[in-house]
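The passage that follows is intended for readers who have already worked through the single-chain material. We present the inputs for a multi-component assembly, then the predicted structure in tokenized form, and finally a short commentary. You are encouraged to pause after the input and sketch how you expect the pieces to fit together before reading on.
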Amino acid sequence: MNRTYELMFVVRPDMAEEDQDKLISTLETAVTSTGGALKSVERMGKRRLAYMVRRFQEGIYILMIVEGGGGLMQELERRLRVSEPVIKFLTVRVDEEQKRLDKIKQIRESRKKAAPAPAAPAEAASGENAPATA
Amino acid sequence: MADETRPTSSESSGGDRPDRGERRPPRPGGPGGPGGREGGRKYFRRKKVCKFCVEKIESINYKDYRLLGQFVAESGKIVPRRLTGVCMPHQRRLSLAIKQARNIALLPFAGRAS
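Having made your guess, compare it with the prediction:
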């Protein structure tokens, strides 16, 4: 039951750096206490929003990649909903998509390997033939 | 409407369809596509190809809003694939990604991003 989720959320633009750290660490403890794992945290910085959200035109985007079950994500979403500075959030499950991408990559690499492999023995064979005839 | 065909401008050439596994040689009967009918319009219309197939873009993610923005009209609508030439499997992923990006305010629901 280990799934990977991307949790992206937007906090209000006037939020201090320390407060962001505090928010992230509380989320992190919530993740680790339920047996999940926080894989990465990325601050994407301040960005202009495409539309007004709670009368804000800008927001600070933060992306977390979390491993865990569905119950954990419900808990995280509940926390984001009640925390006042968070103005928007989105969770996306990514593990199945990642599996698909890995599969495509694997197929592509095996094709790449298959292409030059038959060419090499053919050259070797012709190299052996040449001295025999001479 | 002319600006909505913008995403198709990146393709190089094509009678063949790159979304199939093997490459077919260009058909001798002239260009395919909607404009190639006999006795129809006089001008040549290039065959539209799927950008994701041609450039081998595997992941259509809600995070790269720049890529998604090419498939969103000025009004904020998702451009239909008859105008962009995107193949059906990719259009499905594309529309999902655009909707996710809208939800997190990376793309507008309506109108230009303010």
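Commentary: Helices of chain B lie at 51-54, 65-69, 81-84, 88-103. DSSP finds four helices and no strands in chain B. How closely did your sketch match?
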